[in-house]
Amino acid sequence: MEERLRRKRNKILHTKTGSTTPMKVTLNKFDFSNSYIWFEFYNAPLEKDVSLICDTIRSWHIVGRLGGCNSMNMQLSQCPLDQRPTYDAIRGANVNPTSFYNIGDLEIQDNLARIWVDIGTSEPLFLDILINALTQISSE
Predict the structure, then answer these.
(1) CA spacing 20 to 30 A to 137: which of 37, 60, 65, 89?
(2) Is the separation of the CB atoms in 54 and 76 below 8 Å?
(3) Rounded distance between C-alpha atoms, residue 111 and residue 62, angstroms
(4) Pairing of strands 107-109, 112-118
């Protein structure tokens, strides 16, 4: 295993080539059940960038569809750091569920892109997760 890691080191570890300028995020009249999310790139994205962005959005949708973005059930993040974490399954099962309803295909033209979303529930954590992931991609 060490030999494989040594051979693949250059593919795994690489210097950042992204922008040092923070990503600008603007929210205008966002409707959780019917909205487009727009992206404006500095330049037309390369095929590998489009693939990475699509994979990120697909992962975001899957986590949301499985109920992973429910801010009403954040038990472990609320635990004190100096104690052993505990999880109450009954409490977790009794919170109102959140689920990502539907998502369209990413549409790209030149340096603009958009994707239609129906998040369904008014859960801002969904958007925070997407923005955090895209901010990291932008800086990479």
Answers:
(1) 65
(2) no
(3) 26
(4) antiparallel
pLDDT of the residue at 10: 65
SS3 per-residue string spanning the chain: CHHHHHHHHHHHCCCCCCCCCCCCCCCCCCCCCCEEEEEECCCCCCHHHHHHHHHHHHHHHHHHHCCCCCCCCCCHHHCCCCCCCCCCHHHHHCCCCCCCCEECCCEEECCEEEEEEECCCCCHHHHHHHHHHHHHHHHC
> Residue 99: what residue type?
S
Residues 93, 98, 103, 108, CA torsion sign: negative
For 75-107, the pLDDT digits (tens) are 788 788 888 888 888 888 888 877 788 999 999
Would you state the structure tokens that stand for residue 103, as one six-digit string?
């998502």
Encoded tokens for 119: 């998040």
In contact, 74 and 91? CB cutoff 8 Å: no
